[in-house]
User: Fold these one by one.
Assistant:
Number 1:
Amino acid sequence: MIEMKDVFKKYPNGVTAANGINVYIGQGEFVYVVGPSGAGKSTFIKMMYREEKATKGDITVNGVNLTTLKNTKVPIFRRNIGVVFQDFKLLNSISVYDNVAFALEVIEEQPNVIRKRVLETLDLVGLKHKARMLPTELSGGEQQRVSIARSIVNSPKVVIADEPTGNLDPDTSWEIMKIFEEINIRGTTIVMATHNKDIVNSIKHRVIAIEGGKIARDQQKGDYGYES
Ligand code: ADP
Ligand code: ADP
């Protein structure tokens, strides 16, 4: 479902952030991506949703070859990928409901289908009662739950998360992890870059460690493996 073959990424400034990556991630897996700052974790996951293009090698996600995918086809490709960011990236001038509905509105889903899906999804993340509020009226943890709801409302096959608990306190981080677990149990592949040692060492999943743009370690039910 996600495959990289001999993937390299060299930024225009000359930095090589991916330096020969080969990996296969199957449907339904939960994968943590760990490693020191600047190791290439973000680049690795950004290439999975074509936020960055590989300079060499082949990447296939959900059967789509991202090497040959035209820029105009990227939005259609992304409909099957949910993305969650450390800083949420919600639209602060519209309601929680509308933030989640947005992805369904752009694909012109029927209004009754949109309403049902949005409320079901907000219910899954425990925020149905806050549907009318603005994101800025919510706590950080609640905002991250909205962003997760937005990422899954389309029922994507894959959810990619870049340090989703990076701005949250420990208790809130555990709450957010429960939601990712639930999404994964329902069959969605999760790829999550994280610096959260306690979570990685407690909720065991595959661990891919990136160092210097290469996969330094790839372990089923792995450990975080760094001091912090
Ligand atoms: P990580 O997520 O592990 O911190 P990144 O993938 O963000 O690592 O960065 C890997 C390397 O690529 C770093 O040296 C970083 O400075 C560089 N880098 C990341 N994004 C860009 C960019 N847009 N342009 C130039 N260099 C970049
Ligand atoms: P239920 O009937 O299952 O209790 P509701 O239809 O009352 O669910 O909706 C639950 C929450 O979602 C309420 O806060 C409601 O105001 C809000 N909501 C429902 N539809 C919309 C909408 N189109 N825009 C904004 N908020 C909405």
Note: The chain is about 30% helix and 25% strand.
Number 2:
Amino acid sequence: RILAGTTSDLAGRHVVVSAGGTREPIDPVRFIGNRSSGLQGYALAKVAAARGAKVTLVAANTALPDPAGVSVVRVGSALEMREAVHAAAPAADVVVMAAAVADFRPVSAAGQKIKKTEESDTLPIELVKNPDILAELVVQRASGQVIVGFAAETDNVLEHGRAKLARKGCDLLVVNQVGENLTFGAPDNAGVILSATGSEREIPLGTKEELAAAVWDEVATLLA
Ligand code: CTP
Ligand code: CA
């Protein structure tokens, strides 16, 4: 079901997938970032293209080759990702937010490289909340559009996931456990696909392509 040609249930559909992790500038050479590699988002894009979809991949700071047949838009910060996702979303049947979007950014990025001083051993950096792109997508959703979120949790994965699904108002939320050696940069992933209708599908540890295929199965059902 994963390989090209085995199913084309997304033919004629336009999907937008975000991937990677945003970087929030502190000064011209430094940023606040996260451990997302982009592998899960790229797997989602690849599998969707193989199943016939027209795919726009909004990639934040990934070091991965552009998947064949996928239109890639590169972004850095959460605000750039917001712009790119909102530009592509109105024409999309499906939007999947697999990216790790920074919750906060520095209130202002310094124009020059910040220097150490003798006077102070601390450097406070004030942060401001970033817009919640997924929540904005839900508010602006076109009729029939399917919106999917991802949530990485370190603990109480299902409880946090169920609450987050309800709070965000998306159709599907894929939750998985993360930690030091779990998920980030790894070729494998496991998770649970929570649906707004209440169904919960557990995806055992497998490749990120396999998890992606399971997500598209659920999406295809919702589109049908
Ligand atoms: N997300 C987003 N914009 C943000 C933060 C998150 O679009 N500013 C999206 C992510 O891409 C993901 C989903 O929201 O699909 C859940 O992200 P997560 O960080 O788990 O949720 P938060 O609401 O930020 O909650 P938490 O406090 O647990 O980080
Ligand atoms: Ca967050």
Note: The chain has five helices and twelve strands.
